[in-house]
Amino acid sequence: MEMTETTAISSKNQEKVKQVIDEVHKVIIGQEEMITRLLIGLFTNGHILLEGVPGLAKTLTVSTLAEVLDLDFQRLQFTPDLLPSDLVGTMIYNQKKSEFEVKKGPIFANMVLADEINRSPAKVQSALLESMQEKQVTIGEHTFQLDRPFFVLATQNPVEQEGTYPLPEAQVDRFMMKVFVDYPTKDQEREIMTRMANLSFDGGVKRILKKEDIFSIREEVNKIKLAESLEKYIIDLVFCSRNPKEFGLEEIAGYINYGASPRASINLHLASRGNAYLEGREFVIPEDIKAIATDVLNHRILLNYEAEADGIGTEEIVDRILEKVQIK
C-alpha cells in the first residue's frame, strides 16, 4: 500500500529511519538485529541491555548511533570503585559564593551508555536504574528532570564473573529488552578485518535525525494498530511462562522458578509496534511479536538449577512457548 501524509506512518520519517540504518552500517558490519533493537527501544521509550563477549562492537554501535541521531551522548565505564555521585552528580562548595552548588553528572544526556554495568556495586546500579524508571535525579535537596529523549543502553559480559556484581532480577526487569549479541559470520568478519586494517578509514557518519524527528516517530509508533486477538496472544505468552502446565507444557514447568512480570506484557505490546514500524506497516502482525519475544522475555523468566543442569536456557523455553501458544 502506498503511504500518504494522512496515514499513521510518514513516508518521510520512514526514509529517514532507513538512512539511519544505512549510515550506521558505514561503520558497523552486520549486527542488524542489535541495530533494530536499539531503534525499537529509542522509538518506544524503552531501555536496552546488550549482552555479549568483548569485541563485538556493542560500544561502537551505540556511539555511532548517537552520532547519526545527533543526540547528546555520554559513555560511562562502570568500575568497582565507581560511586553514585560519579553518575548522577554531587554538591560542590563554591568558595567565592560561600555556598554549595550542584555539579551534574553524565546521566544528564539523551543517550547514556553504561559500559559493563555489572562491574560496579549495587549502589551505582540502583542509581542508574532509578533514573531510568523515574526520569529524574535528586542531588542534595534539588530534583532535576532528565533530558528528553532519555535512552539508557547497558552492556555486560556474560562470560567473566570474577569481580562482577550481577544485576538483581528486579532491576534487570526495567530493561525493555535484553539482546544477546553474537559473533559475526566469516564474510562479515573478513570485511571487518579489511576495513579496520585500512588506516585511512575515519568512520565518519552524517547526522540524519533530530530530536523533533524522534518525537514525531514516537507519535507514529503510538498509532500502530494492534488487534484484540494479538493483545490476547501477548497475554497468553506471558501467562504461559508463569503457568506452563495450563498450556500443556508440563515438560518445561519443572525448569521455571518465576514467569515473566507484567512489564513483559507492556513491553511486548510496545516492541511489537516498534518492529512493525521498522517494517513499514501500520499494524502489528504475529511475526512482529514472535520476532521480539525472546529479547523481551529472556531476562524475565527465571530458571532453576535443574534447568542449568540439563542445559536448558531461557531462549529454548521461549521457543517452546511460541510453538505451543496459538492465536485465538
Q: What would you say this structure looks like, in words?
A:
With 328 residues, the chain is of the alpha/beta class. The protein folds into two domains: 11-214, 3-Layer(aba) Sandwich (Rossmann fold); 224-324, Helicase, Ruva Protein, domain 3, CATH 1.10.8. The protein is built from 14 helices and eleven strands. It has helices at residues 11-24, 32-43, 58-68, 84-88, 122-134, 169-172, 186-197, 211-222, 228-242, 250-253, 262-278, 286-297, 305-309, 314-324, and strands spanning 48-51, 73-77, 89-94, 99-104, 111-115, 136-139, 142-145, 151-156, 177-180, 256-258, 302-303. It has a five-stranded parallel sheet. Strands 3-4 form a two-stranded antiparallel sheet. A hairpin with a 2-residue loop joins strand 6 and strand 7. The longest helix is centred in the C-terminal third of the chain and has 17 residues, at 262-278. The chain is globular. The chain starts with 10 loop residues before the first helix and ends with a helix. Mean pLDDT is 85; it is low at 1-7.
Largest sheet: 5 strands, parallel
Record the strand order, biggest sheet: 2-5-8-1-9
What is the CATH superfamily of the largest domain? Answer: P-loop containing nucleotide triphosphate hydrolases
Oligomer: single chain
Q: Which regions have little confidence, pLDDT < 50, spanning 5+ residues?
A: 1-7
CATH class of the largest domain: Alpha Beta
Distance between the termini: 27 Å
Beta strand count: 11
Brief sketch in words of this structure:
With 328 residues, the chain is α/β, with parallel strands linked by helices.
